[in-house]
From TrEMBL:
Pfam families: 2OG-FeII_Oxy_2. SUPFAM superfamilies: Clavaminate synthase-like. This is Alkylated DNA repair protein AlkB. Residues 119-222 form the Fe2OG dioxygenase domain. Binds 1 Fe(2+) ion per subunit. The keyword Iron applies. InterPro entries: Alkb, AlkB-like, AlkB-like_sf, Oxoglu/Fe-dep_dioxygenase_dom. Keywords: Dioxygenase, Iron, Metal-binding, Oxidoreductase. Fe cation binds at residues 137, 139, 193. The keyword Isomerase does not apply. Its cofactor is Fe(2+). It comes from the Bacteria.
Length: 224
């Protein structure tokens, strides 16, 4: 293990912070045992009916690999079956993950009603290797404007959170560490965001991942 992983920023106090109205970063939200348990589930999902794969955007393969729950996402569209992979129906979003999403919205907003009302019906589970990135984009393939809940496990990444107008400045770069929660909703729901870098060998011991990064985003599609 590297010195950075042993003595990383996770040992410092990283207070929660609202980057913009509706965009809340809660460092260290998931405990290590919870992270590890989720990584075990991740291994079940990638061995499920639809294998993890890189989605194609405009003829290019994304560097990130994705496995979906509830609804299968490919650029611009959600379908129940993974029509661009093997045609199989994706696994359901498990109850525990819906409950975790509700807790996350409550944590971020402090609003018990917003937490209770949140019923994510899809989870996009992304795996990043050392070289993977995600360009600046909006999450706008959902009809619902309910918040997006993002959970990070494994290597730290540089996450760029921008404005709702375009992919350029103003934006802010933050380090999403294993266990961090990020929720964007309300006026920030359509903010551009991306991952500019993964910091290799920064996953904390005991998080369940030796290398690489997993990000889970929970969303309400608004589809019937
Ligand atoms: C995403 O925008 O879907 C993923 C963001 C992340 O990996 O943190
Ligand atoms: Mn996104």
């Amino acid at each position: 293990m590297s010195g950075e992983a042993l003595f990383g920023d996770d040992l410092l106090h990283r207070p929660r912070r609202e980057l913009a109205p509706g965009a809340m970063w809660v460092p260290g939200w998931l405990r290590l045992d919870q992270q590890r348990w989720i990584v075990d589930r991740f291994h079940e999902w990638v061995n499920g009916p639809v294998p993890i794969r890189s989605a194609r955007v405009g003829g290019h393969e994304m560097s990130v690999k994705t496995v979906c729950l509830g609804w299968h996402w490919r650029p611009y569209e959600y379908t129940r079956e993974a029509v661009d992979v093997n045609g199989n129906r994706v696994l359901d979003v498990p109850d525990w993950l819906v409950r975790l999403g509700r807790k996350a919205v409550l944590e971020a907003t402090g609003d018990p009603q917003a937490g209770q009302a949140y019923t994510p019906d899809t989870a996009l589970v992304n795996h990043y290797d050392d070289a993977a990135r995600m360009g600046m984009h909006q999450d706008r393939d959902e009809r619902s404007r309910a918040p997006v809940v993002s959970l990070s496990i494994g290597d730290t990444c540089r996450f760029r959170f921008g404005n709702t107008e375009n992919r350029n400045k103003p934006y802010e770069d933050i380090d999403l560490v294993s266990g961090d929660l990020f929720v964007f909703g309300g006026p920030s729901r359509l903010a551009y965001h991306g991952v500019t870098k993964v910091h290799p060998q920064t996953a904390p011991a005991g998080c369940g991942l030796e290398t690489g990064r997993i990000n889970i985003t929970l969303r309400e599609t608004g589809l019937g």
